[in-house]
């Protein structure tokens, strides 16, 4: 019988250039929108991003989790939390855009938000908000007490 040695993997987070956040602390949906709007402006397909925050809600980093089509983006909790765990995030702002310009969340958006909130509780990463960006407006799940 042959001996088998499973491969060993090293998982690492690679910092790329991006939006300069400085010492930005996200304390409300307006601050989240101001940070996120330039990243989503002009996109022709749905993008789902996460903003990883430390224990004092200062921005650690932003990761694009999924790029979808005009009407949907496939988002799996595993892919949402992987970069957050790697950046040692204590909290997260979820964000995605609606290329149609209408920031009203769909039933699927609401179901995903509940699922990610539950997953975050299990992992010790607090979901502070889910911001849906439309054309010059946004919808905040936190502002509407949906978290």
Outline? globular
Poorly predicted regions are: none
Largest sheet: 5 strands, mixed
* SSE arrangement, N to C: HEEHEHEE
**How many strand segments?**
5
Global mean pLDDT: 91
CATH class categorisation: Alpha Beta
* CATH homologous superfamily placement: Cytidine Deaminase, domain 2
Structural class: alpha+beta
Q: In the CATH hierarchy, what is the architecture at level 2?
A: 3-Layer(aba) Sandwich
Output the CATH topology: Cytidine Deaminase, domain 2
Could you say how many structural domains there are in total? 1
Query: How much is the radius of gyration in Å?
Result: 16 Å
The CA-CA distance between the termini, in Å, is: 55 Å
Estimated helix fraction: 25-40%
Annotation field: number of helices: 3
The share of residues in extended strands comes to 15-25%
User: What is the strand arrangement across the widest sheet?
Assistant: 2-1-3-4-5
